[in-house]
């Protein structure tokens, strides 16, 4: 079994980014600046945003976190987005999801200037991605592509089953793996809560991308010998042996499947760090495009 070590690979890619930023700095160029907006105090979102800012600092970017109370109105949040769109100093920004229920995330995403949309969530970027045109790829799917590429996992002609059809992972990764290219050229099936023959599909999959948010959902008996597992799930389960009382696990039962798979991403330390690294690459690109 080969561990697809996102922590190690993201460190390598971040070193590459830092070299490039050092070079830009030496030549007096534009230092990439990533801003993140976070609303409310969802602990998972806070930890993700902190990680994004810390990684930005590590590679020599400028970073800004804008934190707002959960009771901010949609109009006020739209004003912040508008301010970031107009701020020449900011190359790219994200609005961390989920947002409080009284704010429609679609309205916020639509308000982001696609040129600064380093999350790749705006329909302009999504549509460009789907048509294989120049675009900011959504960070998690982009991170998965980088991982498949750097670990030389063949996708051409393979059957891929993607579990989950969210706008930020399931849907875009299915498009990216099916489109012409490398990684790509795969035969992709999207499975979701209404899928009837899930066991049959999983059994036939050379590559499984699990993004449904259900702890240890996929077990050994459901997968094919030698399957490649990309586990996007980050689920917290009780664990009395840990000081904090819980631990993070994926959508796949790692210990159960590890001796049957050819490659697998751990949770934590797999897809998560690659998402952050992909965001940095998008921000670097945004600053160069300016
Ligand atoms: N929430 C979960 N994943 C993401 C992400 O990649 N970007 C943003 N903005 N919010 C998220």
Structural class: alpha/beta
Rg (C-alpha, Å): 19 Å
Q: Got a strand count?
A: 11
Shape: globular
Q: Count the helices. How many?
A: 10
Q: From N to C, what is the helix and strand string?
A: EHEHEHEHHHEHEHEEEEHEH
Q: What small-molecule ligands were found?
A: guanine
The CATH topology name of the largest domain reads: Rossmann fold
Strand fraction band?
A: 15-25%
N- and C-termini, Cα separation = 43 Å
If classified by CATH, what would the architecture of the largest domain be? 3-Layer(aba) Sandwich
- Under CATH at level 1, the class of the largest domain stands as Alpha Beta
Describe the structure.
The chain is of the alpha/beta class and 290 residues long. The chain folds into two domains: 28-113, 3-Layer(aba) Sandwich (Rossmann fold), CATH 3.40.50.10860; 139-271, 3-Layer(aba) Sandwich (Rossmann fold). It contains ten helices and eleven strands. The protein has helices at 6-26, 43-58, 74-86, 105-111, 123-130, 139-150, 170-178, 198-204, 254-257, 271-289; strands at 2-3, 33-39, 62-68, 92-95, 159-163, 187-191, 207-210, 228-231, 235-238, 246-249, 263-264. The strands form three sheets. The protein has a six-stranded parallel β-sheet with strand order 1-11-8-7-5-6, with helices on both faces. A three-stranded parallel β-sheet has the order 3-2-4, with helices on one face. Helix 7 links the parallel strand 5 (159-163) and strand 6 (187-191). Helix 6 (139-150) crosses helix 7 and helix 6 crosses helix 10 (271-289). The model has no long low-confidence stretch (mean pLDDT 97). The structure holds guanine (GUN). Guanine (GUN) is lined by residues 94-97, 119, 139-140, 168, 275. Guanine binds next to strand 4 and helix 6.
């Amino acid at each position: 079994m080969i561990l697809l070590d996102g922590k190690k690979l993201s460190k390598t890619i971040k070193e590459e980014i830092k070299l490039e930023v050092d070079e830009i700095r030496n030549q007096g160029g534009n230092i990439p600046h990533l801003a993140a907006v976070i609303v409310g105090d969802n602990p998972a979102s806070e930890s993700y945003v902190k990680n994004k800012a810390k990684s930005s600092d590590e590679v020599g970017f400028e970073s800004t976190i804008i934190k707002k109370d959960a009771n901010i109105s949609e109009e006020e949040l739209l004003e912040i987005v508008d301010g970031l769109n107009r701020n020449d100093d900011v190359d790219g920004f994200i609005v961390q999801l989920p947002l409080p229920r009284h704010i429609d995330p679609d309205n916020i995403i639509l308000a982001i200037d696609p040129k600064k949309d380093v999350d790749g969530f705006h329909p302009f970027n999504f549509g460009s991605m789907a048509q294989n045109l120049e675009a900011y790829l959504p960070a998690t799917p982009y991170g998965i592509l980088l991982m498949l590429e750097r670990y030389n996992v063949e996708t051409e002609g393979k059957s891929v089953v993607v579990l989950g059809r969210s706008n930020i992972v399931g849907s875009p990764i299915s498009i990216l793996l099916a489109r012409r290219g490398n990684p790509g050229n795969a035969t992709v099936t999207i499975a979701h809560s209404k899928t009837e023959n899930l066991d049959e599909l999983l059994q036939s999959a050379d590559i499984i991308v699990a993004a449904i948010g259900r702890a240890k959902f996929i077990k050994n008996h459901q997968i094919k010998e030698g399957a490649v597992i990309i586990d996007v799930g980050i689920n917290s389960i009780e664990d009395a042996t840990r000081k904090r009382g819980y631990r993070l696990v994926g959508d796949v039962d790692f210990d159960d499947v590890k001796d049957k798979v050819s490659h697998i991403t751990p949770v934590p330390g797999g897809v998560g760090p690659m998402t952050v690294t992909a965001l940095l690459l998008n921000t670097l690109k945004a600053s160069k495009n300016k």
